[in-house]
Design brief:
By secondary structure, the chain is an alpha/beta fold. It contains 9 helices and 9 strands. S-adenosylmethionine binds next to α1 and α4.
C-alpha cells in the first residue's frame, strides 16, 4: 500500500506512487507489437549479447534434472526462450508479467518456436507474486525492475519465491562510466531512441519514458544495497559495455 502523498519517478516526471503502474502499463501496451523489433533497432542487436551473459549466469543444467526458472517482467519471453535453449530436458520457464499485451506476443512467439509446453506465460505483479514460497530455482528480471513502482517490495518477493540456494539475477541499464562514451550515449539516448520509437511504433512518448527511466534508475552500488536489504547474500554486479548495462546477482542462502 502506498501512503497518501507518496510520490515516485515516472521518467523525469514526479507522479503519485499509486499512479505509476498504470502509466507503465500504457507504455508497454502501446509498444508490445513492435517491442522485439525495437530492442534490436535501439541496441544495434547488443541486447542479445547482454541476455546471453544473463543466461550464462543462470547456468541451467544440461541434463534431465528439473530446473524451474521464473522470469519476472518477462514480457515477450526473450530470456525464457534463451534459458530453455541453453538448458536440458528438465528446464522449464515461467514468464510473469503484468501486461497482457506483452504476454500475448510472447505466447504467439512460444507457439511459433515450439516452446509452448516448456514456457508458460502468466499475468502477475512483481510486487505480489502469485507463487508459493521457495518455488523456483532461479529468478531473473531483464530490463524490468526500473519499471516497477515499489522495487524493494519486488526484491522481497523475488527472494520469497526462490528456493534456498537459488540465485536472483537482474539485468538492467546502468550508469555509463567511460569518458567520451557518456556524452555519445546521452546524445543517442535522448535524440535517436525517441525518434526511432516514433518511426517504428508511432509512440515517441513511450521511448522518451524508457530513456528517462534509465537515467533515473539506481546506481549499481545503490541497487546492490537494496538487494542485500531484501535478504540476498553474496551480492555482486558486473558492468557491461562501459556501464550501459549491469548484471546484478544475489543468492538466497
Ligand atoms: C522493458 S520490458 C522487458 C521485457 C523483457 N524482460 C525483455 O528483456 O525483453 C519491461 C517489462 O516489465 C513489465 N512490468 C512493468 N511493471 C511490472 C510489474 N509491476 N510486474 C511485472 N511486470 C512488470 C512490463 O509489462 C514489460 O513487459
Amino acid at each position: 500500500m502506498s501512503k497518501v502523498g507518496e510520490e515516485t519517478d515516472f521518467g523525469f516526471e514526479r507522479v503519485p506512487l499509486a499512479d505509476k503502474q498504470a502509466r507503465v502499463d500504457d507504455v508497454f501496451g502501446s509498444v508490445a507489437q513492435r517491442y522485439d523489433l525495437m530492442n534490436d533497432l535501439m541496441s544495434g542487436g547488443l541486447h542479445r549479447a547482454w541476455k546471453d551473459a544473463l543466461v550464462t549466469a543462470v547456468n541451467p543444467p544440461l541434463n534431465i534434472k528439473p530446473f524451474a526458472l521464473l522470469d519476472l517482467a518477462g514480457g515477450t519471453g526473450d530470456v525464457a526462450f534463451r534459458v530453455i535453449e541453453a538448458g536440458g530436458a528438465g528446464t522449464r520457464a515461467t514468464v510473469c508479467d503484468i501486461n497482457p499485451d506483452m504476454l500475448e506476443v510472447g505466447r504467439e512467439r512460444a507457439i511459433a518456436r515450439g516452446f509452448d509446453q516448456v514456457v508458460s506465460f502468466e499475468q502477475g505483479n512483481a510486487e505480489a507474486l502469485p507463487y508459493p514460497d521457495r518455488s523456483f530455482d532461479c529468478v531473473t528480471i531483464a530490463f524490468g525492475i526500473r519499471n516497477v513502482p515499489r522495487i524493494e517490495t519486488a526484491l522481497e518477493e523475488a527472494h520469497r519465491v526462490l528456493r534456498i540456494g537459488g540465485r536472483f539475477l537482474c539485468l538492467e541499464f546502468s550508469s555509463v562510466d567511460v569518458p567520451g562514451l557518456e556524452a555519445l550515449y546521452e546524445l543517442y539516448s535522448f535524440n535517436v531512441i525517441p525518434a526511432i520509437g516514433r518511426a517504428v511504433t508511432g509512440d515517441r512518448e513511450a521511448y522518451q519514458y524508457l530513456v528517462e527511466s534509465i537515467r533515473q534508475f539506481a546506481r549499481p552500488e545503490e541497487f546492490a544495497a537494496m538487494m542485500r536489504a531484501a535478504g540476498f547474500h553474496r551480492v555482486s554486479f558486473t558492468p557491461m559495455t562501459g556501464g550501459v548495462v549491469c548484471l546484478h546477482s544475489g543468492w538466497k542462502l
